[in-house]
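User: I'm curious what two different proteins look like when written out as structure tokens. Can you demonstrate?

Assistant: Sure. I'll show them one after the other, since each token string lines up with its own sequence. Here's the first protein:
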Amino acid sequence: MQGEAMTKRRRGWNYFEACRANLTPEAKRNSRIFTVWCLGWALSFVGATWLLLNETVTAAPLTWLLALVPTVIGLLLIRSYVRFFRSADELMQKVHLEALAFGFGAGFLFMTGYALFERIGAPAMSVSDPVAVIAFAWALGQLLAMRRYS
């Protein structure tokens, strides 16, 4: 009985295993494409941020182009996520919709709550702070929803 409980617990928290088992071949392909765009966006964002902060690129047209690259990649990332979402079955759509709601709610509370703390002396919040909270909450929402429905 204990081995069965361990297997069930591992399966419930292993997001990738549970996720892949419930995807159609088309949705698996779209999920991989979305993952590649996520990595591309993250690398382009970190790279552009580093280059701009270190003033490696200083010519005005190049700085604008450098700042535009992560935005364009981000638009393609969103497009790939929508394509994945539409190709997923109803259960996977429900999991992702709940995760998006959880991430949006956590981000909203963090941004509005922290704004009040800034008024009483907390350090100013960077734009990337709420992005990190939203991304973490979205991933946590997926884990919780997969556990609930697996």
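Here's a second, unrelated protein for contrast:
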Amino acid sequence: MNLIIFDTSVLVDDLRTGCHEEKIPSVAGLVRSSSVVLAELLRGATTSSEREIVLELSRNHPILTPTENNWLESGEIVSKMRADLGFAPDKLRAIHFDILIALTARSHGARLITSNRRDFLTIQKYRKFEMEVW
């Protein structure tokens, strides 16, 4: 079974510019939503129509949520990144959600599709997961 998770970056890019409107429906696999992605989208939604789009995503695709082990592992990775890369607290908070998305995809054998090349390539240095960059 080929599972797909779209990262927040792909969905936001598409909502703002429509740049992925042909690519998203053509992806082969079963689309799953990440609870972390949905939370990030809701955090940024400023209108009722934007909130409705996010809620529609949650209704149309099964939701995958980080496990207890994903949370613990993500904390270890964030700590290691702080030590290795000297990331500031704001950057660590921001990348922590991306780590949770990546670990959730990895746990389910899903391919993560993102347009956030830099951060997810950094995460791959700490944990391998299947990724496609648009």
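A detail about the second structure: The chain has a mean pLDDT of 96.
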